[in-house]
Amino acid sequence: MKKCYAVIAGILMWQIHALAQTPSAAPGKPAAQQRPGGTGRPDMPQIGRLYGKLLDAGNGKPIPYASVALLRQRDSSVVTGMLTKPNGEFNLENLPFGPFIIRINFMGYTGLQKKVMITPQATEQDLGNIKMQANVKTLQGVEVTGQKSAFTMGIDKKVFNVDRNLTSVGGTATDVLKNVPSVNVDLDGNVTVRNAAPNIFVDGKPSTLTLDQIPADAIESVELVTNPSARYDAEGMSGILNIVLKKNRKAGFNGSVNAGIGTGNKYNGGGNINIRQGKFNVFANYNINANQSWGDGTTSRTNFSNKGADTNYLLQNSNSNSKPLFQFGRFGADYAIDNRNTISLSQNIVAGNFKNNEDLISTFADRNHIITGISDRLNNNEFSFRNYTTALGFKHTYAKPNKEWSADLNFNKSNNDRNGEYVTQARNPLGQPLGQSLFQTNNSAGKTTFITIQTDYVNPVGKNGKLEAGAKVTLRDYSSAYNVFDKDTLTGHMLPNAQLSTSYKYNEEIYAGYANFSSTIGNFGYQAGLRVEQYVYAGENQGTKYKPTKAVPGFFPSVYLSQKFKHDQELQLNYSRRVNRPNFFQLIPYRDYTDPQNQREGNPNLKPEFTNSLEFSYAKNWKNSNLIGSIYFRNTNNMISTISTPIGADTLLTQFINANRSNSYGAEITMKNQVLKGWDVTSNVNLYQTDMQVNTGDQHFTNSGFSWLAKINSETKLPANFTVQVSATYQAPAIALPSSGGGGGRGGGGGGFMMIPTSSQGTIKGFSTVDLAIRKDFLKSKAASVTLSLSDVFNTRQYELNQLTPAFAQDYIRKRESRILKLNFSYRFGKFDASLFKKKRSQGNDMQMGDQMQSF
């Protein structure tokens, strides 16, 4: 680990030195505008679109059959063109990137022309209602932006483009997030951003899917918003992670197929296809993933009692394996009613089946370290789920640029089933069986209905202002029945265990509305917003009802201030208030006996935690590099945490509590450099201090500490179409902060592994990991590629928790399979043809179009 730390530190210092040597942009000219723009080269993707409507300036009536042509700016050669429809609309599709001139002519009117720019960030542009009159009506220009890269950094958002990340090919969303700056993912797939849990969205909406249920090959990009505005949900202590799924809009048809194999019986495959023709855009996506894995863990605990008189020891060893099979399907269509109205419908179907096995051996010893007994517990279970999500959306754009209204309905329904059996054998100190083994079975069934209804409105105000407003309703209903049966050693019959069996259900409702206003005064920008959320919760456990939160509105303001300077520099100061509400599994008072020596129980009296976040940022762009640095402070009241208490002689009970407060503050810097042509390096360092205070009953303690996280991603293009990517992460030791449960980790699929005892007591040991991948592109236009990747090259990724309290001392080590070699193949196909499936126009229509084009 010391070697890895030295390598990371060396690269960071070298990169800072390289950044200092990078020449600045020309004075008064943004660096983005000095980059080479698109030129409409044949090898560039042709996915651009320009559309609008032609009107008579005098009477406002449509102008039919006017000539609209797109010319290359460099030589005025014609790219494409058309005649306006009877209602005056025109629509130019299948356009390459680059600078162009749009020219409009019609007999009796003064011709119009204006420069436009099509870029990867602005592929579709509504030119609005264009009025032809004696005076020239200019069309809005488009700012030149850079070419798509692995990371796009803004002052308020970082976008990670997944197709550029080679080390996650053939994996899941968990593997993708491990490479995103500022993000840390533990062994259970729980996600933290700046040492706190974010809110995770899929396509901008909450989802019941866990990260391991989303294939990496189905993800287009990941958006990280560290301090969201009032437009976003208030849930999440450290912001929002939005996973954007692939949805192509290229003209014609295109798609890809992929397949992969990995060490330890790991397989993946899938494909996607997109067809766009006229008013319709149809897409479909399917992926299958079977990643068998193993895990092991060790717990060593000393239980103190009566000043050492009754001290005893516990040693636990766990060996487990899991055989999951995921299937992910998605299909849908967009229908353009006209140029400004589009309706979208999509359906996701996700299925999973798991087989988990664990052997947990517990060894008990007295204060003299003499073994007093052994317990051998075998756990075998099967788990399956089905998840269905239907999304319906409508979007209307106005003739006024950037004015739009949208409405979305998201309906999710899922169900799960689990069947398991436990066989526990008590043994004497010599390992010999004592009596008959105890046989226990369980089965459970759960179902969820999750509905969101949302509408958003955006309207530019004045020259630089923008008003945003919207409303959202979230409805969730969950129910589950869990039944446990014990085998009678005399009769052999399976008898119900009322103490361990339970049934519960809950429903929650969130009603929200927001308003945002933003504007600029010269180089100074500001945005102020307010979000109001009404949260209603009701839960029931075996007939007992729980309602721990009052149905009162919550107010969540946000303020952003920014100042731009010369040489493409910007400062920003922002503030937001957020909330993290306890989930039902933290609230339910049911006790989990999966591991008899490490039990867990919910707390129906938990309160929501509220966080105030303040962030000050600086951004600077050079020609081939950019930098963003932030100083942040986060104060959380009623922080949801856990505390472990000894019960009996050798058992710990972990319960959820509300800590008094937690303060976290730190500094983060992210740099992206093009060191040499074809070699890009992105570095991220986050240094933070966390202070926590707990006062509950007779428990009074504080836990504080300094830690840091560093990530480096290096991508190098080599001759013969080879690309090499190296990613390294180092997490320094940190105080233990339990996951809020919202990390979206392994969910029901992790049932075969010994539970990690997260607690507000103790310290997590640091760890490092390095991932390596190489890709070879071949065939025409690099349509095919082969990727060879090796994760956790030095096999150093593991979880280690050290706890010391007056009642017990515990060291916990957990390791999951992490060094995996994968080989993946992908092939991309398609034809970018805007007239696909259309009948050819008659020769007369072609001649008419030709005559009109000649008028230019």
TrEMBL record:
Which one of the record's GO molecular function terms can you name? carbohydrate binding
Q: What kind of membrane protein is this, topologically? A: Multi-pass membrane protein
The protein's matches in InterPro entries, at most eight in alphabetical order, are given as: Beta-barrel_TonB_sf, Carb-bd-like_fold, OMP_b-brl_3, Plug_dom, Plug_dom_sf, TonB-dep_rcpt-like
Which key words are in the record? Cell outer membrane, Membrane, Receptor, Transmembrane, Transmembrane beta strand, Transport
Decide whether keyword Thylakoid is in the record: no
TonB-dependent receptor plug domain: which residues? 172-240
Q: State where it is primarily located.
A: membrane
Describe the location of the Outer membrane protein beta-barrel domain by residue ranges.
Answer: 396-736, 759-827
Subcellular location field: Cell outer membrane
Family membership noted in the UniProt record: Belongs to the TonB-dependent receptor family.
Q: What is this protein called?
A: TonB-dependent receptor
> Lineage of the native species?
Bacteria, Pseudomonadati, Bacteroidota, Chitinophagia, Chitinophagales
